[in-house]
Design brief:
By secondary structure, the protein is of the alpha/beta class. The chain has two domains: about 1-120, Up-down Bundle (de novo design (two linked rop proteins)), CATH 1.20.1440; about 125-384, Alpha/Beta hydrolase fold, catalytic domain (Rossmann fold), CATH 3.40.50.1820. Helix content is about 45%, strand content about 15%. The protein is built from 15 helices and eight strands. Strands 1-2-4-3-5-6-7-8 form an eight-stranded mixed β-sheet, with helices on both faces. Strand 1 (about 125-130) and strand 2 form a beta hairpin. The longest helix is centred in the N-terminal third of the chain and has 24 residues, at about 45-70. The mean pLDDT is about 95.
Length: about 375
Amino acid sequence: MFEYFPGNYVWNLGVVAALNSGGLIDEVDRACRPIRELAKQGSDVGTAEFMRAWQDVADQLEHQAIEAGKAGHGRTAGQKYIRAAVYLSQAERMQSAKDPGRSATYQHCMDLLQKGFELVDPATTRVEVPFEGSSLPAYFTDASRAGEPAPVMIMWNGLDSTKEHMYTSGFPAELAARGISTLMVDCPGSGEALRLRALTARVATEGWASACVDYLLMRSDVRPDRIGLVGWSLGGYYAPRAAAFEKRLALCVAWGANHNWGAVQKRRLEREGENPVPHYWDHAMWVWGEDDLDTFIKKTEAVHLDGIVERITCPFLIAHGQNDRQIPLEYAHRSYEQAVNSPKRELRIFCPEEGATEHIGLDHLPHVGTFIADWVAGTFAELS
C-alpha cells in the first residue's frame, strides 16, 4: 500500500481511498503536506488538523466549481464538486463520533455530491427506502435503457463508510457500463442513517434487505428477478447474513469476508490487527448504539456467520485481500467452506503481486471493483 504517512495505517488508508476514488495526486498531496509531521504521533492525534487541511483543498475546489459554473462550464464544475466531496468524505470519517461539527460537515459533503450529480451524472439520484416507519437514505444509479428494466445491485457499506464513498469508488459506474443499476444504501449504523437519523446497526440485517427489495420491486426500471446484494468491509457480514434469509436476492457478494466480526473486536481489545478509523471504540459503539464497552463487546459475539452462510442458496462471491490487516484471511476461507448450498460459490484472493491486497482492496480499488462487476454481470447472465 502507498504510505504517504509512514507507520500511520489509518491515515494512509484515507489517502489511498481518496486516490482510488477519483482524487488527484496533486490535490491529495496539498491536503496531506501540512500534517505530515503530525501523522507521526498516531492516528488519533491530529484528526482535527487532518479535517482542516483536507477541508482547505475541498473549499478551493468548491470555489473553482462555482466560478466554472458561472462561466457556463458545467462539466468542469461538476467534476470539481465531486472531487471536493471525495476529500471531505474521507476527512469526515476520521473525526471523533463526539465532534460537534461532524453532522454539518457530512451534510456539506452530500450537498457537494448532489451538485455533481446534477451537472455530470443525471442518471444518479437521491432516493428513500421505506424502513420501519422511517426510511433509509440512498443513491440510485439507473442503468436501464429505452424503457427496458435492468438488473440491479444493492450496495451496503461498512463500519465507517457511507453511500458517498460507495458512489465515488467508481463501482456503480462500472456496473452501469455493464447494464446494471445500483442502489447505494446507508444502512442503520452507517452514513446518513446514523449521522442524521440516529439509526444504529443490528445483528439481523435481513430486515434491511427486505426493505431494499420491496422498494426496488416498486420501480418499473428494475428487473424483479435480477436483484443482487454486495457489501464491503462490515458489509461483508451484513450482506451474507441478509442473503441467507432474504430469498428474493439473485446473488450475493462479500467484498471483504467479515465472517466473525465479533471475534475481531476481541482481538482489537488485545491490540491485534489494525483499526479502520481513529477514536475506534467511540466510533464502534456509536454505530451499534452502545455507550458501555463491555456491553458492546458482549453484543458483538452474535455478529458472525457460523451457521448462517450454509443457508445461502444463491450464487455467492467472496473477495478478500491476502494482506488485509483488519479482517483475517482465514475468514474468507471459512465463509467459502461453509457456503455449501450456494449453487455457484467463488473465492477470489487478491495477492501483493497484483495489488488490491489490503482491506477491501483499497490500495487498488478499481482492480477489485471491475472483477466484482464482471462476476456480477456474468452471473446475472447465467441465471435462467
